[in-house]
Amino acid sequence: MVKVPSRKLIKPFFQEIWPSLAVLSVTAGIASLVTEFTFVSGIKALWKVLFRFLRLTLVLAIPILLLPSMCSRMKGIFNTKYRRLMQIQEEAGLNLDQFQVWFLRPLQGIGLSMFIATKFVGVLQLYLGTPIPGRVIVPTGEFNLVRFLSTNSILFLTSLFLLFLWTIDDLGIRQVNKKSGEVKMIGRYVGVLLPIIFGFYGVFALFGASARSLAIWYIVQMALVLYSPFVMLAIVHFRYLRSREAYLMEKLEVAKQTLAVDPQEGMI
Fold first, then answer.
1. What is the 3-class SS of 18-77, one letter each residue?
2. Burial letters 218-252, b for 16+ CB under 10 A, else e
3. Is 147 a member of any domain?
4. 3-class DSSP state for residue 88?
């Protein structure tokens, strides 16, 4: 067996994650100079920013272990009497798309997190019977168990939903009508547009009661904190998919076929 030099394995990995590390470094630098820019200040910001990055990355990555189970459960929804999941091999793409990994998918993650946070705050307000400011989900320099559990739950759900959509999209899986042959896209446009649209809605709903300058401040803070972990999630998902493609296809009971896809194909 020929051993691959570790340098050849490490170098491509750092080439993939460098935007995440760059934003993380900028965030740590600003946090150490500007009081409470990312919820910590002074020299202690350096290790706290790093710890938060590792913690959030771990929370986002854990749901990937549930992806096979989720695929197994979702197959019954998409494989019906008249419809069938099918892999359009021309549409499958397991090559790293830098635009998606470094920009689009982190934006989806941040947007969807905002939306889920909006719903969480709304439910909490109904339960308590009192209005809750949007900044309740914004981390502070002090540990708060409720905020900690809430944030992790929001990120966990966001990750699980996006991982499934990304998997469907990257594997080129479409839903085909058995009678008409109509092909419907499941993951691509839904996965791109909805998190962004929901995200804008979530931003305005969360911080609508705050002054505009303060709302912008919160949004910048959250974007800086969440960007690097979501980049890492996109890369972990890409590598996981390349190694488990056949297994996930089996869980989804996807048929393989070469089809000429109509440009005017439907979307669901």
1. HHHHHHHHHHHHHHHHCCCCCCCCCCHHHHHHHHHHHHHHHHHHHHHHHHHHHHHHHHHH
2. bbebbbbbbbbbbbbbbbbbbebbeebbeebbebb
3. yes
4. strand
| Residue 245 included in any domain | yes
What's the sign of the alpha-carbon dihedral 63, 67, 73, 77? positive
In a 3-state reduction of DSSP, which class is residue 154? helix
Query: 106: domain range?
Result: 6-267
Residue 187 lies in a domain: yes
The arithmetic mean of pLDDT across residues 210-223, rounded, is 73
Is residue 1 in some structural domain? no
pTM listed for this prediction = 0.81
Q: How far apart are CA 148 and CA 133, in angstroms?
A: 16
Given a contact cutoff of 8 angstroms between Cβ atoms, the answer to whether 231 and 57 are in contact is no
What mean pLDDT comes out for the span 14-29? 89
Structural domain tally of the chain?
1
Q: Are 96 and 234 in contact (CB under 8 A)?
A: no
* Confidence label for 27 from pLDDT (cuts 50, 70 and 90): confident
Distance (Å, whole) CA 179 – CA 3: 51
Contacts of residue 186, Cβ cutoff 8 Å, sequence gap at least 6: 78, 165, 168, 169, 173, 174, 175, 268
Our CA angle for 255, 259, 264, nearest 5°, is: 115
- Which burial class, exposed, middle or buried, applies to 164 when counting CB atoms under 10 A from its CB (0-12, 13-18, 19+)? buried
